[in-house]
Design goal:
heterotrimer; A alpha/beta (200); B alpha/beta (406); C alpha+beta (98); A: 200 residues; alpha/beta; Pyruvate-ferredoxin Oxidoreductase, domain 3; B: 406 residues; Rossmann fold; 6-stranded mixed beta sheet; 13 helices; globular
Chain lengths: 200, 406, 98
C-alpha cells in the first residue's frame, strides 16, 4: 500500500540496498540529518537484523514536511538505491518501486544496460560508478557518499547546502578535516557523473 | 489513492533544540542530563546504542557518572541496587535476555524501594533466539513491582527518561522505574526530536535527596534484613501502596514537565475516541500506525479511535474504563504471549479494568509483532473491520501477519 | 520485643532506621550452654569481648565483670578464644519450679 501525503506536500520514501560495510545506514542517516537542516521531518530506519560485514543490508529514509506518524518499513518507495550491483538477482530490489520512481544503481554500466536487464521501463533508471569515485577520492571502496550526490542530482529531496553542511559537520568530527574534504569531493563527483534514463 | 498523513498527528512540538538522533542516543542524552551518580550496564542488542553513547559522554567528561562496565546484567542491577541503597542516583539499560538475567534483582530493587531507572529496549525472549522487538521481556516484568512507562517514539522515550528520575525518587513513591522503548523501531530510528537545555533538565530533576542512605553516617540504617511472616506482609502492603500513589505523582509530573517542555503527556492517550464506535488499545510504537489507520478510516466515515497506554504499571484502570466507556467494540493488541492464560497480558488488564466498573463490552484481542514481525496499516485495518463485524465472536481472534496455512 | 506496627507505619522496604535495636531482641533464649568465667584467673585481655558476636561481655573500668545473659546465644567462641582457658561452657541450669 502507498502512504501518501496531502497533494502538493512533500513526501518521499527511499529504500537503500547494500552490504554491511558499504555505509548503507550511514547514507540513510546522512540524508535524514540533512532534512533536519532544511527544517523538514524525516526518519531513517535500518532494516533490523544482526549486522555482519558483507551481508545484505537494507535501510529506509522518509522525508516529509509534516510529522511522520508511523515507523514500519517502507513498502512502496519513490526511490530505490542499490549500492552493490552484485545483489542484483539475489534480492527483489525493485519490489514496490512506484511508477515514476527512481532506481539508482552503483555500477560502471550504463542505465540502458540496467533497463534491459529489468525489462521494466516504468521508473527513471540511473547508474553511477560510485565505487570508482570512492576509490579515487577516499581511497576506499565505500560508495555511500558519491551515490548520495547522484541521488540529490536526480531527486533534490533535500537541499545540496544541507547535505554539504551535514557532511562537513558529521565527517570532520568523526574522520578529520582531510577525510571530510575527500568526502565532499566524492559527493560532488557523484552529483556530476550520475547518468539517467527517463522512464515513460 | 491519496490519503492524508494527518496534521492531527501529535507533532514533535514544544521546546528544545531540533536534533536528528535515534531513540537510543536521545535516551543517552537524557541520562547525561539527569546526572546519575552511578550507571552500570552490560551491552546487549538493541540497548547497546544507549550504553555506547552514554559511556562516550562519560569518557568525554560531559557527565561525572561512575560508569561500571560490569560482567553481566545480574551484576549491572546488583551494582545499581548497592549504589541506590548507598544513596546514589543509579541507572541502567538492557533488553530481552539481559532483563531475564536481571530477574532475581528486579524484585530486590522494588522490594527495597530503590528508585533505580532502567531503560528497557524491548526484545523477544529466547528461544528461538531473536534480537528484534516484542514485549515479552517487558510483560515478564509486569508483576515485579517496577513502574513501566511505554513510549511511542524517541521524543517520548527521552522525555520519559527525564520524568522517570523524578517519579522513582518521589518520597511518596520510592520505586524503580522502567522506561520502555521498542527495540530497533524506536532505539535505532533516527527522527526529528527536541533536546531540552541541560540546565532545564538539571533543574527539573534536581539533586537526589534520599530519605535513607547507607552512606548517611548521621542516621545509620540497616537494609536487606531478614523479613519473615511477622513483617514481610506489611512491607509488601506498603510497596503496593507506593505503586498506587505513583499514579497521582506521575500525573503531577506530567503537568510540571509540560511547563518546561510544552509537551503534554497523560497516563493513557486517547485518540479520536470520544465518538468512536470501534477502538483499538495498544502499547508502544505501534500506536503511530494505529493513529494513521484511524485517520484513514475516519476519512471514509468509519468512527474509529485508539487508546495508547503510557503508564502500564501502575495500570490506570479507571482512566482506561472511562476512555473506552462509549466505544461499542474494543480491540486489544498484545505484543507478547501468555501461554496457557485466559488471554494475553494487555487484554487481561483491559478486560479487568472494564469489568471492575461493571462495563460489559464487545472485546476482541490480537497478538502481533512477535519476534519483530512487522505490523502494517493493512493489518490494523483488518482489526477495525473485524471489530465492526458483529458475527465475529469476542475473545482472542488471532495473530496479525501469521502464516496461517489452511 | 520489636513493636508490631500497622503496615503504613513501617519504614519502606523493611529497612531498619533504628540503630542499635538488637538490644531489643532476647537472643539469650536461643542458648543451650552458657559461658561461666573463672574471674580469678582472668587477665582482662578483652579477647572474649572482641570476639563475641553479640557484644554480651560486660566491661567496667577496663575490667571484665560478667556476661549479659539476655543476649549471649551460647555460641562458645569466647571459650575457644580465651588465652587463659578461664571460660567454660556449661549446660543451662535445669528449670526450677516457680
Amino acid at each position: 500500500m502507498g502512504v501518501e501525503s496531502d497533494v502538493g506536500r512533500r513526501w518521499v520514501e527511499v529504500r537503500w540496498h547494500g552490504r554491511g560495510g558499504q555505509g548503507v545506514v550511514t547514507a540513510s542517516n546522512l540524508l535524514a540529518e540533512s532534512a533536519l537542516l532544511d527544517n523538514l521531518y524525516f526518519q531513517s530506519l535500518p532494516e533490523f537484523g544482526a549486522e555482519r560485514s558483507g551481508a545484505p543490508v537494507v535501510a529506509y529514509t522518509r522525508i516529509a514536511d509534516t510529522p511522520i506518524p508511523f515507523r514500519f518499513p517502507v513498502q512502496e518507495p519513490h526511490i530505490v538505491v542499490v549500492l552493490d550491483y552484485t545483489l542484483w538477482g539475489h534480492l527483489p530490489v525493485v519490489l514496490g518501486l512506484r511508477p515514476g520512481g527512481l532506481l539508482l544503481v552503483n555500477t560502471p554500466a550504463s542505465p540502458q544496460v540496467v533497463v534491459r536487464s529489468l525489462g521494466w521501463p516504468l521508473a527513471t533508471v540511473a547508474t553511477l560508478d560510485a565505487t570508482a569515485i570512492a576509490q579515487a577520492t577516499l581511497g576506499r571502496p565505500i560508495p555511500n557518499v558519491p551515490i548520495l550526490g547522484g541521488l540529490l542530482r536526480l531527486r533534490p529531496v533535500v537541499s545540496l547546502e544541507a547535505v554539504q553542511a551535514t557532511l562537513r559537520q558529521r565527517l570532520s568530527a568523526r574522520l578529520g578535516h582531510q577525510a571530510m574534504q575527500a568526502n565532499l569531493q566524492a559527493f560532488e563527483r557523484g552529483y556530476q557523473q550520475v547518468q539517467s534514463w527517463e522512464g515513460r | 489513492m491519496a490519503l492524508a498523513v494527518s496534521s492531527r498527528v501529535p507533532p514533535v512540538h514544544g521546546l528544545g533544540t531540533p536534533v536528528a538522533l535515534d531513540g537510543g542516543t536521545l535516551v543517552a542524552h537524557a541520562m547525561r542530563q539527569t546526572r546519575p551518580d552511578v550507571v552500570a550496564a552490560y551491552p546487549i542488542t538493541p540497548q547497546t546504542v544507549i550504553t555506547e553513547a552514554f559511556s562516550q559522554f562519560v569518557a568525554n567528561g560531559e557527565v561525572h557518572t561512575e560508569f561500571v562496565p560490569v560482567e553481566s546484567e545480574h551484576a549491572a542491577l546488583s551494582v545499581c541496587i548497592g549504589a541506590a541503597a548507598a544513596g546514589a542516583r543509579a541507572q541502567t539499560a538492557t533488553s530481552g535476555p539481559g532483563l531475564a538475567l536481571m530477574w532475581e534483582l528486579l524484585g530486590v530493587a522494588s522490594g527495597m524501594r530503590l528508585p533505580i531507572v532502567m531503560h528497557l529496549c524491548t526484545r523477544a525472549l529466547s528461544a528461538p533466539i531473536n534480537i528484534l522487538c516484542d514485549h515479552s521481556d517487558a510483560m515478564a516484568m509486569r508483576d515485579t513491582g517496577w513502574l513501566l512507562l511505554f513510549s511511542e517514539n524517541g521524543q517520548e522515550a527521552y522525555d520519559q527518561a527525564i520524568i522517570a528520575v523524578r517519579l522513582g525518587e518521589h518520597p511518596q513513591v520510592l520505586l524503580p522505574v522502567a522506561n520502555v522503548l521498542d527495540g530497533f523501531i524506536v532505539t535505532h530510528c533516527v527522527e526529528r526530536a527536541l533536546l531540552l537545555p541541560d540546565e532545564v533538565v538539571s533543574e527539573f530533576v534536581g539533586e537526589y535527596q534520599p530519605a535513607y542512605a547507607l552512606l548517611d553516617l548521621q542516621r545509620p540504617v540497616t537494609v536487606g534484613g531478614l523479613d519473615f511472616q511477622d513483617f514481610h506482609m506489611e512491607h509488601k502492603r506498603g510497596q503496593v501502596e507506593a505503586m498506587a500513589r505513583a499514579k497521582g505523582v506521575l500525573e503531577g509530573l506530567f503537568q510540571e514537565f509540560a511547563e518546561i517542555s510544552g509537551r503534554i503527556y497523560r497516563l493513557v492517550e486517547p485518540y479520536r475516541l470520544a465518538d468512536a464506535e470501534v477502538g483499538v488499545v495498544v502499547l508502544g510504537s505501534t500506536a503511530g500506525t494505529v493513529r494513521y489507520v484511524v485517520d484513514r478510516l475516519r476519512a471514509r466515515g468509519v468512527r474509529a479511535g485508539m487508546l495508547s497506554i503510557r503508564s502500564f504499571r501502575p495500570f490506570p484502570a479507571l482512566e482506561v474504563a472511562a476512555a473506552l466507556a462509549e466505544v461499542k467494540a474494543v480491540g486489544v493488541l498484545d505484543r507478547a504471549l501468555a501461554p496457557g492464560a485466559s488471554a494475553p497480558p494487555l487484554f487481561s488488564d483491559i478486560a479487568s479494568a472494564l469489568a471492575g466498573v461493571g462495563l460489559s463490552k464487545r472485546l476482541l484481542g490480537w497478538v502481533y509483532g512477535i519476534g519483530g514481525r512487522e505490523v502494517l496499516p493493512q493489518h490494523i485495518e483488518g482489526v477495525f473491520h473485524t471489530l465492526a463485524d458483529p458475527s465475529v465472536p469476542p475473545g482472542l481472534v488471532g495473530w496479525l501477519g501469521l502464516r496461517e496455512g489452511r | 520485643m520489636l513493636s508490631l506496627r500497622p503496615w503504613y507505619e513501617e519504614p519502606p522496604g523493611g529497612l531498619l532506621p533504628y540503630p542499635g535495636n538488637s538490644v531489643e531482641v532476647d537472643t539469650g533464649a536461643w542458648r543451650s550452654r552458657r559461658p561461666v568465667i573463672a574471674l580469678e584467673r582472668c587477665v582482662h585481655c578483652m579477647i572474649c569481648w572482641a570476639f563475641c558476636p553479640d557484644s554480651a561481655f560486660i566491661v567496667q573500668d577496663g575490667r571484665l565483670i560478667g556476661v549479659d545473659l539476655e543476649h549471649c546465644k551460647g555460641c562458645g567462641i569466647c571459650a575457644r578464644e580465651c588465652p587463659k582457658a578461664c571460660i567454660a561452657m556449661e549446660p543451662e541450669p535445669a528449670l526450677t519450679p516457680a
